[in-house]
Amino acid sequence: MIPFNKPYLTGKETQYIEEAVKSGKISGNGIFTQKCQQFFESNYGFKKALLTTSCTDALEMAAILINIKEGDEVIMPSYTFVSTANAFVLRGAKIVFADSMMNHPNMDATKIEALITSKTKAIVPVHYAGVACDMDVIMDLARKYDLFVVEDAAQAIDSYFTGKDGTKKALGSIGHLAAFSFHETKNIISGEGGMLVINDKQFINRAEIIWEKGTNRSSFFRGEVDKYGWVDIGSSFLPSEIVAAFLWAQLENLENIQKVRNQLWREYYLKLADWAKENEIELPQIPSYATNNAHMFFLKCKSIEQRTHIINKLKSKDTHPVFHYISLHSSPFYLDKHDNRVLPNTDVFTNTLLRLPLFYELDIQTVINQLLNIK
Ligand SMILES: *Cc1c(COP(=O)(O)O)cnc(C)c1O
């Protein structure tokens, strides 16, 4: 059986968890949490990193930090996970969906400006499959209209964007805020887990307060105040040291994990090229401004029928590819709540995108042979 995903363990996870447990400090913000946060800050140029219990929670923190209120509008792609939208809907925002690009599920940055109104508060680009959105265009719009940019970088660890000025920046280091996921389906994992990145320093103090249930506990432990109390809204957003210990074992192996995933990705790409062409299937395209972190290998099939056929054929061999999002603009919950209902490119990805198995220990040749033999 070849599953869609199999979480990869580096071997040190249980050892570090044992260390965390034996240290007697197993709640959040201990040594492993700080090691992980420092790793991200120093390797990716993030101003401040805070581990969270999930990317969903990091997005919710972002919505609180930029003071989203009833009636505010937030622009995002429709081809994304529910959490991207829920975080803002929970605070009363109305979601305005931008269409995907023709050749990639990422939102088409050239279509954003037409969606901006006096109520627009933020743009939330989702770097689908770890491939950068056009952040030059998005950041220019944010400056022009005084908007916040929250990157949904859930899938985008160790991926980069090169701007017009030639500088290469890590995804998650560009927007005012960014959210990452360490869910077991992502490249680097901790079971459930995530991270909020704060690049605009005006948000750092308040982010720590919201993270610590609305208290100034972090300042207290640094000795900046002599007692701590309730100073703002907040929730329980920080993970335990057990989760951070697991994540640390993964981070120590990040380079190797990324190397293996990239090799697998390239193997799919090279060995499926002719087959894809013959069958009018598009392989993933990486824009010149983006890098590939090999989070995902997807096919854009020529029709929903072709996709169903491929899924059935692979399943008959016990290999399990999966399609992805049912676009949010056509979801039962939000269908009647938004204005711009026509998103043709998004609909195409909903119907035709197929994700192939991609994980560290994948027997890729078997999957490739199965695909090449489909009649
Ligand atoms: C995985 C994912 C999320 C949610 O991440 P969790 O850590 O499971 O909350 C949000 N947005 C996108 C684009 C994702 O891929």
TrEMBL record:
Transmembrane segments: none annotated. Keywords: Aminotransferase, Pyridoxal phosphate, Transferase. One of its GO terms (molecular function) is dTDP-4-amino-4,6-dideoxygalactose transaminase activity. Its EC number is 2.6.1.59. Pfam families: DegT_DnrJ_EryC1. PANTHER family: DTDP-4-AMINO-4,6-DIDEOXYGALACTOSE TRANSAMINASE, TRANSAMINASE. Belongs to the DegT/DnrJ/EryC1 family. This is dTDP-4-amino-4,6-dideoxygalactose transaminase. It comes from Flavobacterium lacisediminis. The gene is rffA.
